[in-house]
Amino acid sequence: MSLLAPGIPLSLYIHLPWCVEKCPYCDFNSHQLNESFDEKKYVTSLLTDLEQDLPKIWGRSVETIFIGGGTPSLFSGAAIDELISGVRARLMLRADPEITLESNPGTADANNYQAYRNAGVNRLSIGVQSFEDAQLKKLGRIHDASQAVDAFQLARKAGFERINLDLMYALPAQSVEDALVDLDKAIALNPEHISWYQLTIEPNTGFNRYPPKQLPEDDLIWEIQQAGAEKLQTAGFKQYEISAWSRDFEESQHNLNYWEFGDYLGIGAGAHGKITDLSEGKIFRTRRRKQPSHWLDDQNNYLAEYSAIKNNDLALEFMMNILRLNRGVSAQVFTERTGLMLHEISSALTKARNKSLMDKRSDILRPTARGLNYLNDLLALFMDVEVKNNIVIKEIT
Hints:
Helix content is 36%, strand content 24%. The protein is an alpha/beta fold. The protein has 2 domains: 10-258, TIM Barrel; 311-397, Arc Repressor Mutant, subunit A, CATH 1.10.10.920.
Protein backbone atom coordinates (compact mmCIF):
# COMPACT_ATOMS: atom_id res chain seq x y z
CA MET A 1 0.00 0.00 0.00
CA SER A 2 1.39 3.37 -0.98
CA LEU A 3 2.10 5.90 1.75
CA LEU A 4 1.90 8.77 -0.75
CA ALA A 5 -0.74 11.28 0.34
CA PRO A 6 -3.44 12.80 -1.89
CA GLY A 7 -3.61 16.56 -2.20
CA ILE A 8 -0.01 17.17 -3.27
CA PRO A 9 0.08 20.71 -4.74
CA LEU A 10 0.31 20.94 -8.53
CA SER A 11 1.94 23.69 -10.62
CA LEU A 12 2.41 24.28 -14.34
CA TYR A 13 5.72 25.26 -15.90
CA ILE A 14 5.66 26.55 -19.51
CA HIS A 15 8.95 26.83 -21.39
CA LEU A 16 9.50 29.41 -24.13
CA PRO A 17 12.99 28.54 -25.37
CA TRP A 18 14.23 31.42 -27.51
CA CYS A 19 16.61 34.27 -26.59
CA VAL A 20 18.09 37.16 -28.55
CA GLU A 21 21.53 35.87 -27.51
CA LYS A 22 22.65 32.91 -25.41
CA CYS A 23 24.38 34.15 -22.24
CA PRO A 24 27.75 32.45 -21.59
CA TYR A 25 26.82 31.40 -18.02
CA CYS A 26 23.41 29.94 -18.94
CA ASP A 27 22.87 26.17 -18.81
CA PHE A 28 19.10 26.30 -19.37
CA ASN A 29 17.49 25.02 -22.56
CA SER A 30 17.65 28.34 -24.40
CA HIS A 31 18.29 28.85 -28.10
CA GLN A 32 19.57 31.96 -29.81
CA LEU A 33 17.22 33.42 -32.38
CA ASN A 34 18.80 33.51 -35.81
CA GLU A 35 15.54 34.40 -37.51
CA SER A 36 11.97 35.16 -36.56
CA PHE A 37 9.85 32.42 -35.02
CA ASP A 38 6.19 31.50 -35.36
CA GLU A 39 4.84 32.34 -31.92
CA LYS A 40 1.29 31.32 -32.83
CA LYS A 41 2.44 27.85 -33.91
CA TYR A 42 4.43 27.48 -30.71
CA VAL A 43 1.49 28.51 -28.51
CA THR A 44 -0.83 26.11 -30.36
CA SER A 45 1.71 23.32 -29.84
CA LEU A 46 2.01 24.17 -26.14
CA LEU A 47 -1.71 23.68 -25.69
CA THR A 48 -1.60 20.38 -27.60
CA ASP A 49 1.31 19.33 -25.38
CA LEU A 50 -0.75 20.20 -22.30
CA GLU A 51 -3.74 18.22 -23.55
CA GLN A 52 -1.61 15.08 -23.79
CA ASP A 53 -0.77 15.36 -20.08
CA LEU A 54 -4.31 15.97 -18.85
CA PRO A 55 -5.03 12.29 -18.04
CA LYS A 56 -2.07 12.32 -15.64
CA ILE A 57 -3.58 15.08 -13.49
CA TRP A 58 -7.31 14.58 -14.01
CA GLY A 59 -9.37 16.20 -11.28
CA ARG A 60 -6.47 18.15 -9.79
CA SER A 61 -6.33 21.93 -9.48
CA VAL A 62 -3.28 23.93 -10.56
CA GLU A 63 -1.95 26.31 -7.90
CA THR A 64 0.63 28.33 -9.86
CA ILE A 65 1.88 28.92 -13.41
CA PHE A 66 5.42 29.94 -14.35
CA ILE A 67 6.29 31.02 -17.89
CA GLY A 68 10.07 30.75 -18.19
CA GLY A 69 12.78 30.50 -20.78
CA GLY A 70 14.61 31.46 -22.73
CA THR A 71 13.12 34.93 -22.92
CA PRO A 72 9.32 34.82 -22.62
CA SER A 73 9.16 38.60 -23.12
CA LEU A 74 10.05 37.97 -26.77
CA PHE A 75 6.44 36.80 -27.14
CA SER A 76 3.77 39.37 -27.87
CA GLY A 77 1.03 40.25 -25.44
CA ALA A 78 -1.49 38.64 -27.80
CA ALA A 79 0.44 35.35 -27.77
CA ILE A 80 0.66 35.26 -23.97
CA ASP A 81 -3.05 36.08 -23.74
CA GLU A 82 -3.87 33.20 -26.11
CA LEU A 83 -1.62 30.89 -24.08
CA ILE A 84 -3.11 31.73 -20.68
CA SER A 85 -6.67 31.65 -22.05
CA GLY A 86 -5.96 28.22 -23.53
CA VAL A 87 -4.56 26.96 -20.24
CA ARG A 88 -7.61 28.23 -18.35
CA ALA A 89 -9.89 26.43 -20.81
CA ARG A 90 -8.11 23.11 -20.24
CA LEU A 91 -7.20 23.10 -16.54
CA MET A 92 -8.85 23.71 -13.22
CA LEU A 93 -7.03 26.66 -11.68
CA ARG A 94 -7.29 27.80 -8.09
CA ALA A 95 -8.92 31.19 -7.58
CA ASP A 96 -6.44 33.95 -8.47
CA PRO A 97 -3.42 31.69 -9.13
CA GLU A 98 0.09 33.11 -9.08
CA ILE A 99 1.13 33.50 -12.74
CA THR A 100 4.76 34.53 -13.25
CA LEU A 101 6.47 35.53 -16.49
CA GLU A 102 10.21 36.05 -16.96
CA SER A 103 11.37 39.18 -18.76
CA ASN A 104 14.70 40.38 -20.12
CA PRO A 105 15.14 44.17 -19.75
CA GLY A 106 16.47 44.24 -23.31
CA THR A 107 13.08 43.11 -24.63
CA ALA A 108 10.89 45.12 -22.24
CA ASP A 109 7.98 46.80 -23.99
CA ALA A 110 5.29 48.94 -22.36
CA ASN A 111 2.48 47.63 -24.57
CA ASN A 112 3.48 44.01 -24.03
CA TYR A 113 3.81 44.48 -20.28
CA GLN A 114 0.31 45.93 -20.16
CA ALA A 115 -1.01 43.07 -22.29
CA TYR A 116 0.71 40.47 -20.07
CA ARG A 117 -0.93 42.02 -17.03
CA ASN A 118 -4.33 42.12 -18.74
CA ALA A 119 -3.91 38.46 -19.74
CA GLY A 120 -3.60 37.46 -16.09
CA VAL A 121 0.15 37.53 -15.43
CA ASN A 122 0.37 38.92 -11.89
CA ARG A 123 4.06 38.47 -11.11
CA LEU A 124 6.98 39.58 -13.28
CA SER A 125 10.54 38.31 -12.87
CA ILE A 126 13.07 40.67 -14.45
CA GLY A 127 16.54 39.30 -15.27
CA VAL A 128 18.68 42.27 -14.25
CA GLN A 129 21.80 40.30 -13.11
CA SER A 130 23.79 43.50 -12.47
CA PHE A 131 23.40 47.28 -12.50
CA GLU A 132 27.01 47.70 -13.66
CA ASP A 133 27.33 48.09 -17.44
CA ALA A 134 30.83 46.58 -17.54
CA GLN A 135 29.62 43.46 -15.74
CA LEU A 136 26.60 43.16 -18.00
CA LYS A 137 28.91 43.08 -21.01
CA LYS A 138 31.04 40.36 -19.40
CA LEU A 139 27.87 38.38 -18.72
CA GLY A 140 26.76 38.67 -22.35
CA ARG A 141 23.57 40.51 -21.48
CA ILE A 142 21.77 42.46 -24.21
CA HIS A 143 20.66 45.27 -21.88
CA ASP A 144 22.41 47.99 -19.92
CA ALA A 145 21.75 49.28 -16.41
CA SER A 146 19.42 52.06 -17.51
CA GLN A 147 17.26 49.56 -19.42
CA ALA A 148 17.01 47.45 -16.27
CA VAL A 149 15.63 50.41 -14.33
CA ASP A 150 13.32 51.30 -17.22
CA ALA A 151 11.96 47.74 -17.35
CA PHE A 152 11.09 47.86 -13.66
CA GLN A 153 9.33 51.21 -14.03
CA LEU A 154 7.40 49.98 -17.08
CA ALA A 155 6.26 46.97 -15.08
CA ARG A 156 4.99 49.18 -12.27
CA LYS A 157 3.13 51.40 -14.74
CA ALA A 158 1.52 48.31 -16.25
CA GLY A 159 0.10 47.45 -12.84
CA PHE A 160 2.48 44.75 -11.61
CA GLU A 161 2.41 44.75 -7.82
CA ARG A 162 4.64 41.68 -7.52
CA ILE A 163 8.06 42.00 -9.15
CA ASN A 164 11.17 39.90 -8.69
CA LEU A 165 14.64 41.08 -9.67
CA ASP A 166 17.29 38.48 -10.54
CA LEU A 167 20.73 39.63 -9.40
CA MET A 168 24.08 37.84 -9.46
CA TYR A 169 27.19 38.10 -7.30
CA ALA A 170 30.71 36.64 -7.34
CA LEU A 171 31.16 38.26 -10.75
CA PRO A 172 34.58 38.73 -12.40
CA ALA A 173 36.79 41.14 -10.40
CA GLN A 174 33.83 42.02 -8.18
CA SER A 175 34.61 43.39 -4.72
CA VAL A 176 32.36 43.36 -1.66
CA GLU A 177 31.67 47.04 -2.28
CA ASP A 178 30.73 46.39 -5.92
CA ALA A 179 28.27 43.66 -4.94
CA LEU A 180 26.68 45.90 -2.30
CA VAL A 181 26.25 48.74 -4.79
CA ASP A 182 24.32 46.33 -7.03
CA LEU A 183 22.12 45.38 -4.08
CA ASP A 184 21.60 49.02 -3.13
CA LYS A 185 20.33 49.80 -6.62
CA ALA A 186 17.99 46.82 -6.58
CA ILE A 187 16.65 47.68 -3.12
CA ALA A 188 16.13 51.32 -4.14
CA LEU A 189 13.58 50.18 -6.74
CA ASN A 190 11.57 48.58 -3.92
CA PRO A 191 10.73 45.21 -5.51
CA GLU A 192 8.75 42.61 -3.60
CA HIS A 193 11.36 39.91 -4.20
CA ILE A 194 15.06 39.64 -4.99
CA SER A 195 16.70 36.43 -6.23
CA TRP A 196 20.36 36.97 -5.33
CA TYR A 197 22.48 34.11 -6.53
CA GLN A 198 26.11 33.26 -7.06
CA LEU A 199 27.62 33.02 -10.51
CA THR A 200 28.70 29.42 -10.99
CA ILE A 201 30.47 27.93 -13.97
CA GLU A 202 28.27 25.14 -15.30
CA PRO A 203 29.19 22.41 -17.81
CA ASN A 204 28.30 22.97 -21.46
CA THR A 205 28.28 26.76 -21.18
CA GLY A 206 30.36 29.45 -22.81
CA PHE A 207 32.02 30.25 -19.48
CA ASN A 208 32.96 26.60 -19.05
CA ARG A 209 34.74 26.65 -22.41
CA TYR A 210 36.24 30.11 -21.90
CA PRO A 211 36.30 30.86 -18.15
CA PRO A 212 36.13 34.55 -17.21
CA LYS A 213 39.19 36.03 -15.58
CA GLN A 214 39.46 37.22 -11.98
CA LEU A 215 36.61 35.26 -10.46
CA PRO A 216 36.47 35.89 -6.68
CA GLU A 217 38.08 33.38 -4.33
CA ASP A 218 35.97 31.50 -1.77
CA ASP A 219 36.90 33.80 1.12
CA LEU A 220 35.78 36.86 -0.82
CA ILE A 221 32.56 35.16 -1.89
CA TRP A 222 31.86 34.42 1.77
CA GLU A 223 32.38 38.09 2.65
CA ILE A 224 30.02 39.15 -0.13
CA GLN A 225 27.38 36.70 1.06
CA GLN A 226 27.56 37.88 4.67
CA ALA A 227 27.57 41.59 3.82
CA GLY A 228 24.79 41.18 1.29
CA ALA A 229 22.61 39.19 3.68
CA GLU A 230 22.98 41.89 6.32
CA LYS A 231 22.03 44.59 3.80
CA LEU A 232 18.96 42.71 2.58
CA GLN A 233 17.80 42.02 6.13
CA THR A 234 18.25 45.67 7.09
CA ALA A 235 16.14 46.64 4.06
CA GLY A 236 13.28 44.44 5.24
CA PHE A 237 13.84 41.37 3.08
CA LYS A 238 13.67 37.89 4.59
CA GLN A 239 15.65 34.97 3.26
CA TYR A 240 13.47 31.89 2.82
CA GLU A 241 15.68 29.90 0.42
CA ILE A 242 19.40 29.93 -0.32
CA SER A 243 19.08 32.51 -3.10
CA ALA A 244 15.59 33.93 -2.47
CA TRP A 245 14.72 37.04 -0.47
CA SER A 246 11.25 38.53 -0.16
CA ARG A 247 9.10 41.06 1.61
CA ASP A 248 6.51 39.58 3.98
CA PHE A 249 4.10 37.22 2.18
CA GLU A 250 5.83 37.77 -1.18
CA GLU A 251 7.59 34.44 -1.56
CA SER A 252 7.45 32.79 -4.98
CA GLN A 253 4.65 30.28 -4.49
CA HIS A 254 5.65 28.44 -7.65
CA ASN A 255 9.24 27.94 -6.55
CA LEU A 256 8.11 27.00 -3.04
CA ASN A 257 6.16 24.15 -4.59
CA TYR A 258 9.35 22.91 -6.27
CA TRP A 259 11.33 23.16 -3.04
CA GLU A 260 8.60 21.44 -1.01
CA PHE A 261 8.65 18.50 -3.46
CA GLY A 262 5.26 19.27 -4.93
CA ASP A 263 4.14 18.18 -8.39
CA TYR A 264 4.41 20.17 -11.59
CA LEU A 265 3.59 19.67 -15.23
CA GLY A 266 6.28 20.88 -17.61
CA ILE A 267 5.30 21.72 -21.19
CA GLY A 268 7.30 23.18 -24.05
CA ALA A 269 10.65 22.30 -25.60
CA GLY A 270 12.99 20.80 -22.99
CA ALA A 271 10.58 21.31 -20.07
CA HIS A 272 10.85 19.02 -17.05
CA GLY A 273 8.00 17.83 -14.85
CA LYS A 274 7.28 15.73 -11.75
CA ILE A 275 3.97 13.92 -11.33
CA THR A 276 2.79 11.69 -8.47
CA ASP A 277 0.59 8.79 -9.58
CA LEU A 278 -1.33 7.61 -6.51
CA SER A 279 -2.88 4.68 -8.40
CA GLU A 280 0.57 3.24 -9.12
CA GLY A 281 2.18 4.50 -5.92
CA LYS A 282 5.01 6.05 -7.93
CA ILE A 283 6.50 9.45 -8.70
CA PHE A 284 7.40 10.12 -12.32
CA ARG A 285 9.87 12.52 -13.91
CA THR A 286 9.03 13.86 -17.36
CA ARG A 287 11.18 15.65 -19.91
CA ARG A 288 10.14 17.12 -23.25
CA ARG A 289 12.23 16.95 -26.41
CA LYS A 290 14.93 19.58 -26.12
CA GLN A 291 15.29 21.04 -29.60
CA PRO A 292 12.38 23.39 -30.40
CA SER A 293 12.27 22.21 -34.02
CA HIS A 294 12.03 18.53 -32.98
CA TRP A 295 9.43 19.33 -30.33
CA LEU A 296 7.36 21.33 -32.84
CA ASP A 297 7.60 18.84 -35.69
CA ASP A 298 6.23 15.77 -33.91
CA GLN A 299 3.09 16.66 -31.99
CA ASN A 300 2.42 13.02 -31.18
CA ASN A 301 5.76 12.58 -29.44
CA TYR A 302 6.60 15.57 -27.25
CA LEU A 303 8.11 13.41 -24.51
CA ALA A 304 11.77 12.47 -24.43
CA GLU A 305 11.51 10.81 -21.01
CA TYR A 306 8.83 9.47 -18.68
CA SER A 307 10.33 7.42 -15.87
CA ALA A 308 9.59 6.55 -12.25
CA ILE A 309 11.98 7.89 -9.64
CA LYS A 310 13.74 4.95 -8.02
CA ASN A 311 13.21 4.39 -4.31
CA ASN A 312 16.95 4.72 -3.79
CA ASP A 313 16.83 8.24 -5.25
CA LEU A 314 13.70 9.53 -3.55
CA ALA A 315 15.18 10.55 -0.19
CA LEU A 316 18.04 12.45 -1.80
CA GLU A 317 15.76 14.16 -4.34
CA PHE A 318 13.41 15.22 -1.56
CA MET A 319 16.26 16.57 0.56
CA MET A 320 17.90 18.36 -2.38
CA ASN A 321 14.78 20.48 -2.55
CA ILE A 322 13.53 21.01 0.99
CA LEU A 323 16.96 21.60 2.50
CA ARG A 324 17.26 24.76 0.41
CA LEU A 325 14.49 26.24 2.58
CA ASN A 326 15.61 27.76 5.85
CA ARG A 327 12.19 27.06 7.39
CA GLY A 328 12.19 23.41 6.32
CA VAL A 329 9.03 21.28 6.32
CA SER A 330 7.09 19.12 8.73
CA ALA A 331 8.64 15.66 9.07
CA GLN A 332 5.40 14.00 7.95
CA VAL A 333 5.72 15.70 4.56
CA PHE A 334 8.62 13.33 3.82
CA THR A 335 6.31 10.30 3.93
CA GLU A 336 3.39 12.07 2.24
CA ARG A 337 5.47 13.13 -0.75
CA THR A 338 7.94 10.24 -1.13
CA GLY A 339 5.94 7.24 0.11
CA LEU A 340 8.88 6.29 2.34
CA MET A 341 8.91 5.96 6.12
CA LEU A 342 10.98 8.49 8.01
CA HIS A 343 12.86 5.78 9.90
CA GLU A 344 14.43 4.73 6.61
CA ILE A 345 16.62 7.82 6.71
CA SER A 346 17.03 7.90 10.50
CA SER A 347 20.76 7.16 10.37
CA ALA A 348 21.42 10.03 7.96
CA LEU A 349 19.24 12.35 10.05
CA THR A 350 21.13 11.44 13.21
CA LYS A 351 24.46 12.17 11.55
CA ALA A 352 23.19 15.49 10.20
CA ARG A 353 21.88 16.54 13.61
CA ASN A 354 25.02 15.44 15.42
CA LYS A 355 27.05 17.60 13.04
CA SER A 356 24.71 20.56 13.71
CA LEU A 357 23.67 20.60 10.05
CA MET A 358 19.98 20.06 10.78
CA ASP A 359 17.51 21.12 13.45
CA LYS A 360 17.48 18.58 16.30
CA ARG A 361 13.67 18.55 16.58
CA SER A 362 12.20 15.25 15.39
CA ASP A 363 9.00 16.79 14.02
CA ILE A 364 10.69 19.03 11.46
CA LEU A 365 13.19 18.65 8.63
CA ARG A 366 15.11 21.91 8.56
CA PRO A 367 18.71 22.89 7.90
CA THR A 368 20.58 24.97 10.43
CA ALA A 369 22.46 28.07 9.31
CA ARG A 370 25.54 25.85 9.25
CA GLY A 371 23.67 23.32 7.14
CA LEU A 372 22.76 25.96 4.56
CA ASN A 373 26.38 27.06 4.40
CA TYR A 374 27.58 23.48 3.95
CA LEU A 375 24.66 22.18 1.93
CA ASN A 376 26.70 19.82 -0.24
CA ASP A 377 28.12 18.13 2.86
CA LEU A 378 24.63 17.84 4.31
CA LEU A 379 23.15 16.33 1.14
CA ALA A 380 26.00 13.83 0.90
CA LEU A 381 24.69 12.16 4.06
CA PHE A 382 21.48 11.22 2.24
CA MET A 383 23.36 9.47 -0.54
CA ASP A 384 24.32 6.76 1.96
CA VAL A 385 20.94 5.06 2.30
CA GLU A 386 19.50 2.53 -0.12
CA VAL A 387 15.80 1.76 -0.02
CA LYS A 388 13.92 -1.12 -1.62
CA ASN A 389 10.17 -1.53 -1.35
CA ASN A 390 10.16 1.00 1.47
CA ILE A 391 12.73 -0.99 3.48
CA VAL A 392 16.30 0.04 4.16
CA ILE A 393 18.38 -2.81 2.74
CA LYS A 394 21.86 -1.36 2.93
CA GLU A 395 23.62 1.49 4.57
CA ILE A 396 27.06 2.51 3.38
CA THR A 397 29.30 3.69 6.22
